[in-house]
Structures are given as structure tokens and as C-alpha cells.
Automatic annotation (TrEMBL):
Parts of the chain that traverse the membrane: 7-26, 32-53, 60-78, 90-110, 122-143, 163-189
Record flagged with keyword Iron: no
Designated name of the protein: ECF transporter S component
One Pfam family named in its UniProt record: ECF_trnsprt
Keywords (A to Z) from UniProt: Membrane, Transmembrane, Transmembrane helix
Keyword Transmembrane helix: yes
Amino acid sequence: MQRRSNAYHISILAVLIAIIIIQNVVPFFGYIPLPGLSITTIHITVIIAAVVLGPKDGALVGGIWGLITWIRAFIAPTSPLAPLVFTNPLISVVPRILIGVGAGYLFIWFQRHQRPTLGLTLAGVVGALINTILVMGLIGLLYSHQAAGFYQVDISKLMPYLLTIIASNGIPEAALAGILTPLIGTALLRFKH
């Protein structure tokens, strides 16, 4: 039984890592580009890894996404702002690792309290928000002058502008993750043991 569980774990981890790579390479699969930004769907794969395999593997899958984001910022940026901000691993890698950690531990807590479906939904929502809030917050904190110039807003209006982006991107991304995480997670968890 332990052998079957290890084989399942390794195969699901490999499939999710492959999906992360595909989402980063195939246009419009992981990023939906819009003027000045791009809506992300890749966080859902990281959240699925975190709830099905645990926070460590969620962090690993998130870290792989972050590393790909960091490399792409140098060689094939996903947006005009990417070479400016995603070359900093604090913005490109750390938030993606924290998606896995946050979503994974949140799901574990709800699972222990006999609320796995609610845990899957909230892990999806919170995981998505971790990414959006940390990335946009760090851009505002570390690159305020460059971001204000890029977005063509006065520096005093940058944070309200970034909060608008968090709302316009983050809410749909969180809603999508909140819907898809229980659908996909429930199916994968059924075969875990």
C-alpha cells in the first residue's frame, strides 16, 4: 500500500510540474495577456499540488513556476513590466512558493476539522490572493517609481492604481481558483490512498 501511495505521489507531482512548464510555454495557457498586465491561471496548478500533495510539494511546484518566471523575465517576458520586476526573485519566486505553503496548510487545517470541501475552496481563494497581493504589493514597495512610470500614473496615485489591479485581476483569479480547486482537488484526493 505504501508503494502505491509513493508511486501516486511521484506521478501526480511529475504531472503537475509538467503542467506548470506547459502553462509557461504555451501562449494563453498560463497567462492571459491584457494591456499592461496579464491574468494568471498557473497559480491553480500550484494550489492543486499544495492540497493534494501537501505544502512542501506545493512550495516546490510554486518554486518551479517562480524560477521559470524569473528566467522568462530575462529571455521572453510575458509583459512589458516583467523585465523590470520579475528579474527580482523576491517578486518572481517567493510569492509563488508561498502560494503552496499557504494553500497547503490552510487545507490541512480544514481537513483536520472535517471540512475538506470548504478547505479546498478557501485554499484556492487564499492561494490566488497570496500571489496577487504579494506580487503587486512588492512591485509597489520595491519599484514604485518605475511602476508609476510604466503605468503612467503619478507616484502618489500608484498604490490606489495597484489596488485596482489587485481587485480587477485578483478577484477573478481567486474566484476561478475557488471553483476549480475543489473540482480538481476532490477528484485527485479520492485516489490518494
